[in-house]
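Worked example

This section walks through a single chain of length 120. The input is the sequence exactly as stored; nothing has been trimmed or padded.
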Amino acid sequence: QVQLVESGGGLVQPGGSLRLSCAASGSIFRINDMAWYRQVPGKQRELVAQITRSGSTNTADSVKGRFTISRDNSKNTVYLQMNSLKPEDTAVYYCNADIISTRHRSGDYWGQGTQVTVSS
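Given that input, the structure is written out below as tokens.
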């Protein structure tokens, strides 16, 4: 079994910062791409940022220059540093990872989501 557990969400004022973490655990052989998505009620889930195993990143235009994705392969963890937060960043943030299990089966895994609310 493989699990992704997110942490770090919460309530923050506009202009503030938050750091999200997502730790993968279980029968993991290797983790390939990792990513953060977000979703607001009534809208489709959208990609925020993604990172390859070697560290190459891709960030959505809406958060470029404000959000930074990173990972620690030794800890099977991906991070999302969010700075200069805006009310429109309010959403549930989901962690996603492409994981090969110890049985050499590839799977696409999701975390349970963490709420980020930007409000004064």
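What to look for: The two ends are 40 Å apart (CA to CA).
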